[in-house]
Write a structure and sequence with these properties.
Blueprint: E1 2-3, H1 10-23, H2 25-28, H3 36-43, H4 46-49, E2 53-57, H5 63-71, E3 77-82, H6 85-92, E4 95-96, E5 99-103, H7 109-115, E6 121-126, H8 135-148, E7 149-159, H9 163-172, E8 176-180, E9 187-193
Parallel strand pairs: 2-3, 2-6, 3-5, 6-7
Antiparallel strand pairs: 1-4, 7-9, 8-9
The structure holds S-adenosylmethionine.
Pfam families: Methyltransf_25 (PF13649)
Protein name: 16S ribosomal RNA methyltransferase KsgA/Dim1 family protein
Domain Ribosomal RNA adenine methylase transferase N-terminal: 38-173
């Protein structure tokens, strides 16, 4: 089911991020992929292990994606939505039939979830840089996440800055926030549960 043999080494991964950061800093928004500490923390969340349908926004080169796949049940499915074609190519090399990779903008979340019959979604994991996005698309993405989630479903976002808090407050209320220092740069993990 899952084949992790093709995992690129850390230097290759770092180099790819640096090149992409030079080319499109506002999209990649990071000089390094998420640390194993962060990816394991995300994958270790009980909501991930119990989920049937997971959506990942901004999967990058798939560090979080691979750990989510390791943690997910064999029947679960994961839709990964990535904007940059170079990274989509890397994601497509992950050999796991539970994974659907879409080269798209996270703004297309609602229609992609419908297309792949993943509604209602149990968990949305997001690495996209909400602090850099314009307000209109950022709000549109938050609305689509809220609408896609099942009541009791979880929205998890790892972010350097806290703009997302203001964006999500109206829909989701106050998040649970955990500090993750062992990442470059350190991030905060914001977690919301859809009421209901
Ligand atoms: C901070 S990187 C995180 C990458 C990866 N998840 C990790 O943990 O290493 C942000 C990722 O979000 C992607 N991204 C940024 N804006 C996006 C958008 N509007 N829709 C989809 N992906 C987006 C970037 O291309 C990049 O892969």
């Amino acid at each position: 089911m899952s084949d992790t043999t093709a995992y690129p080494n850390l230097l290759t991964r770092l180099w790819r991020y640096v090149v992409l950061f030079v080319r499109c800093p506002d999209d990649i928004a990071s000089l390094a992929p998420s640390s194993a500490f962060l990816t394991r923390k995300l994958a270790g969340l009980p909501c991930v292990q119990n989920a049937k349908h997971i959506v990942e926004l901004g999967p990058g080169d798939g560090g979080v994606t691979r750990d989510l796949l390791e943690a997910m049940s064999p029947q679960a499915r994961l839709l990964a939505i990535e904007l940059l074609p170079d990274l989509v190519e890397v994601l497509q090399s992950i050999n796991d039939d539970r994974l659907i990779v879409e080269h798209a903008d996270a703004c297309e979340l609602a229609s992609l979830v419908e297309t792949h019959h993943l509604k209602p979604v149990d968990v949305v994991v997001s690495g996209i840089p909400f602090s850099i996005l314009d307000r209109e698309p950022a709000t549109q993405i938050i609305e689509a996440i809220y609408d896609s989630l099942t009541p009791g479903g979880t929205f998890v976002a790892y972010q350097v800055r806290d703009e997302i808090n203001g964006l999500a407050l109206k829909r989701f209320g106050e998040p649970e926030i955990t500090w993750v220092p062992w990442n470059l740069p350190p991030v905060r993990l914001f977690q919301w549960t859809k009421p209901g």
